[in-house]
Amino acid sequence: MSKTNRLDWSKQITLMNERIKNFQANPGQEQLDAVVTELKAYAEAARSGGIEIPARFTVN
Fold first, then answer.
1. Residue 42, CB half-sphere, CA atoms under 13 Å: how many?
2. 15 within 8 A of 21, measured Cβ to Cβ
3. Which of 3, 16, 22, 42 is least enclosed by beta carbons within 10 angstroms?
4. Four-residue CA torsion sign, 28, 18, 53, 7
5. pTM beyond cutoff 0.90
6. Residue 59: is it exposed, middle or buried by C-beta count within 10 angstroms (0-12/13-18/19+)?
7. CB 52 within 8 A of CB 7
8. What is the pLDDT along the chain (60 residues), one digit of tens a residue?
9. Cα separation, 46 vs 32, whole angstroms
């Protein structure tokens, strides 16, 4: 994955949060698997340098 800008990073966080909320609202193996997969992909991208995580993030 190439370096992403702040907007792409914000969208990624929003998607992860939505998956977590979906799991909380309807706990099940499918929702849990989606959350875990999303978090692993994000962690790997951060570890490999494929995504820039801002030192400070302000939500508007």
1. 18
2. no
3. 3
4. positive
5. no
6. exposed
7. no
8. 345 566 777 787 888 888 889 889 989 999 899 889 888 888 887 788 776 666 665 554
9. 21
Structure tokens at 30: 């499918």
Distance (Å, whole) CA 43 – CA 28 = 23
Question: Per the structure block, which two tokens stand in for 12?
Answer: 């990624």
Residue with tokens 């929702």: 31
Element (H, E) at 16: helix 6-25
Dihedral of CA atoms 13, 15, 17, 21 in degrees, nearest 10, equals: 180
